[in-house]
Amino acid sequence: MSDEAAWLQARVQAGDLDPDYLRMAAYLEHPAAAAALDEPAEAHDDLREWVLGIEPWGDEACVIAAIACGRVLRAAGRTGEAVPSEAGLAAAQRLVDSPSHEHEVEARKRWTDEAEWMYEVAWAEIAAEVAWDAVWASSEDRVRALIRERLVPWALEKRPLPSEADPDGDEQRDSDAEQGAAPAEPSAAGEAAPGDASVDAGGEEGGQAEEADPEQQPDQG
Length: 221
Description:
This protein is mostly helical. It has 2 domains: 3-42 and 156-216, no CATH class; 47-154, no CATH class. It is built from 10 helices and no strands. The protein has helices at 3-13, 19-27, 31-36, 47-52, 59-75, 86-97, 101-110, 123-137, 140-155, 169-179. Helix 5 runs parallel beside helix 8 (123-137) and helix 5 (59-75) packs antiparallel against helix 9. The protein is globular and about 50 Å long.
C-alpha cells in the first residue's frame, strides 16, 4: 500500500475523512483512494455514464463538473444550446461557493441563453451533456482528467457530519482531540497527497488538521 493510501485510511479512522467521499475518489479512479478501500479501481468506458455516476454524491459535485467542462467549451469557442454563457458559469460558481435556493434558480436561469429546458434537467445530466460536448473541443482523456482534478481534492476534504444518533459525539470528539490530532499528510519523500482544486476546494491540510466543527461543516450537496 502506498503512503498516500495509508494516510487516507488513517484519516477515515480518525474521523477526518468521510468514507463515502473516499469511495467517490475511488469511483473517479484515484489510485490511492481505491487502494485505501482495498478495491480495484473500476473502469467506466462510457463518459456519459461515468459523469452521471457522480450524482449520488450530490448536486454540488455535478455542478463543479459542469463548470469545468463548460469552461473547456467556452475556451474553444464552441456554440450551441449546451454551451454555458459566461454569466451562467459565474452564477454556477456562486451556487458552489454559497449554496442556496436563490443561487440555484439564478444558475439555472443564466446557464445558457436558451435555458427553458434547464429547469427540468438534473445537474448530473447537464454535466454529462457538457462533458460529452467538451470531448469534441478537447479529448475524452483530458475531460476525464479535468473532472478528476476538480473533484478528487473536493471529495478528499469532506469530513463526516456528526451523527444525530450519537448524543455523546461532542464528548468523544473532544476526547479524540485531547489524545492526538488527525494523521499528518505524507511527506514529500513519499507519494504526494491530493493537490489543490481551482473550483470550490483548497488543498489538503498539511501537518495537523483542525478539529471538526459541526457548525462549520461544508455542504455535501
